[in-house]
Amino acid sequence: MLRLFLDNRIGVLILLPFFLLLYLLGDIIGATPYFGGPDASSFITTPHWSYWPTASFQFLIVLLNALLLNWVFNSQEFLEKNTYIISLNYLIFNSFFIDFGQFSWTPIVQTCCILLLAIFFSVRPQNDARKAAFNAGFIFGLAWLFCSYLVVFIPVLLIMLLALRTLQFRELLLLLIGILTPIALILSLAYIFQIESDFPLSFPFQLEQLHWFEITILVFIHLLLVFGIMGLRARLLKASLRLKKQVQVLNIFTFFTWILGLGAFLFLGQISLLSLLILPLAFYFAYALLSSGLGISSHLFFYLFLLSTLLKFVVLSF
Question: Disulfide-capable partner of 298 in 75, 135, 194, 294 (CB 3.0 to 4.6 Å)?
């Protein structure tokens, strides 16, 4: 199975819905895994849909994200040839963060962050980046509408931009204007139509008591990160300057997502920020799977992880 996705065979993408159907079937017949608390507060009202509309929405957005993330990887030439393992990595790694029966804006936030990374990857140090800076800020502002805790991530965007180019005040200003634009539009509409609104942000810090299931997931995520970093190091030995810049941006995103995501999970019980760590992990682990030194061990760990994502529905039913 891995060989199919690691090769340049676009036809394997037709298998992605079947993997999602396995998780949907497990959600229907098994126990829903508990990981984190309620969804993060947002500026957009969370709809109260029944099971099947909610499951269909989650299914379609997650599938779209898998295809979109794979397109970013191939179009930005992270490898010399196209590969479709990124989409499979995303679906499997993300399975612990998606509850088909519980509506969540987390998949939409992931969509915005995929587009955000695509914009940053396309920035060239020698070219004007004002348009890219505003677009990146606007996309992030949209994500902020669905997860108010992303406000702590704003300084990270500035660092990511500075990693690509020398300090440009106009670009930083356009980035900030882009971030504030969606929020300003929402608040303006609320004022015009006299809709009661407030800034949905609070930090009720309280150390969470972790269950064995949550600890196991955190261990798996960190093992994925270790494997990915080892594969990435081997890849960077013969990487181009452009790829090194892209990886530098990805590393910044990964580090702060890891720090802020763990903090939000441990002290706020929120998984929205931590779920964003799946995006770079899907990239990193691809290098581990393709590495000659890590090939066998990374493949075994991949199948172990896949098996655990399927067995969780059975184990938690008892």
Answer: 294
Rounded CA separation 143/267 (Å): 22
Tokens read off for 307: 């098996």
Cβ within 8 Å of residue 19, ≥6 positions away: 88, 91, 92
Q: According to DSSP H, which parts of 147-294 are helical? A: 154-164, 169-192, 212-236, 241-268, 272-275, 278-290
User: Has residue 30 got a pLDDT over 80?
Assistant: no
Distance (Å, rounded) from C-alpha 214 to C-alpha 35? Answer: 6
Q: Which pair of structure tokens corresponds to residue 196?
A: 């009661």
Q: Which residues contact 299 (CB under 8 A, 6 or more apart)?
A: 2, 289
Gap between the Cα atoms of 90 and 62, Å rounded: 9
**Helices (H) then strands (E): counts for the chain:** 13, 0
In the numeric block, the tokens 């990981």 are attached to 35
Going by pLDDT thresholds of 50, 70 and 90, the confidence category of residue 26 is confident
| pLDDT tens digit sequence for 270-297 | 888 889 999 999 999 998 888 777 778 8
Enumerate residues 6+ apart whose C-beta is below 8 A from 74: 82, 83, 86
Residue 44 above 60 pLDDT? yes
DSSP E strands in the chain: the ranges are none
Q: Which residue has the tokens 């519980």?
A: 102
Q: What are the CA-CA distances from residue 185 to residues 41, 105, 296 (Å)?
A: 18, 19, 51
Token duo for residue 201: 């942000």
* Residue 298, φ and ψ in degrees, nearest 5: -70, -35
Angstrom distance (rounded) from CA 281 to CA 298: 13
